């Protein structure tokens, strides 16, 4: 794990979750909180997070739903170590494996989970300039194809289990293509920054053996007003409940 001078201490959910993250490199933010808030999990269920980073999404889910058994896969050893450290600090039942999700450890290949969650890298190869920090680039730049993320999620799900992803809206086509033939009952929840603004993020949930038709929900608007007018937060009430109180996304209750 990095030295303490290379880390920051960050609070999530109004202080219910406290984690250490690299001062430079990939840092989890509201996307991880929204992902956790979208998972329709219940006490006693099992959850696998692909690409767990420092563990923020899993720990936020743990804070909202007691009694979960959590497992994380993380490619980068430094982030995997941070996730273990953060899990211990938050009293979470989170087991973290440092491994490539395309080559899961043998014990995980024998397991199935009620939920698989992931925030796959947002940027397709060649779509932008690479980040200078290796950890940030690994987290944001796609090296493992989207198809592999979805394939691994589908294989590790128990029958009727749910996969929940957060992704950039412009990658939605790639997500649906990867899910086709592997998972069903697709639900898409767009997130838009403000009213009359295009969605920039989507949460996508699909079910193993699901047969319901695709459902596209109305966008959730994150901020009040047409523009940001001051340094104060201007989140909508639902977003405040999710980000500050650990509440579920309305999507998680459907």
UniProtKB/TrEMBL annotation:
PROSITE patterns: N6_MTASE
Gene Ontology molecular function terms on file: methyltransferase activity
Domain Methyltransferase small: 34-126
Protein keywords: Methyltransferase, S-adenosyl-L-methionine, Transferase
Pfam family, one: MTS
A GO biological-process term: methylation
Protein name: Methyltransferase
């Amino acid at each position: 794990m990095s030295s303490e001078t290379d880390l920051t201490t960050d609070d999530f959910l109004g202080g219910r979750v406290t984690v250490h993250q690299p001062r430079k490199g990939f840092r989890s933010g509201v996307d991880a909180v929204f992902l956790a808030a979208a998972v329709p999990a219940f006490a006693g269920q099992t959850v696998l997070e692909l690409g767990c980073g420092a563990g923020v999404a899993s720990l936020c889910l743990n804070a909202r739903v007691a009694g979960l058994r959590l497992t994380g896969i993380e490619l980068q050893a430094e982030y995997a170590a941070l996730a273990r450290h953060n899990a211990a600090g938050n009293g979470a039942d989170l087991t973290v494996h440092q491994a490539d999700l395309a080559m899961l450890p043998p014990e995980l290949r024998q397991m199935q989970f009620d939920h698989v969650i992931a925030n796959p890298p947002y940027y397709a190869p060649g779509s932008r300039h690479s980040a200078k920090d290796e950890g940030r680039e690994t987290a944001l730049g796609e090296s493992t194809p989207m198809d592999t993320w979805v394939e691994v999620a589908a294989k590790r799900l128990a029958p009727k289990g749910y996969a929940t992803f957060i992704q950039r809206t412009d990658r939605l086509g790639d997500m649906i293509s990867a899910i086709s033939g592997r998972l069903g009952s697709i639900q898409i929840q767009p997130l838009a920054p403000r009213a009359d603004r295009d969605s920039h993020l989507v949460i996508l949930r699909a079910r193993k053996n699901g047969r319901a038709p695709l459902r596209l929900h109305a966008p959730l608007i994150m901020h009040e007003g047409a523009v940001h007018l001051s340094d104060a937060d201007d989140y909508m009430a639902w977003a405040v409940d999710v980000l500050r109180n650990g509440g579920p996304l309305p999507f998680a209750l459907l």
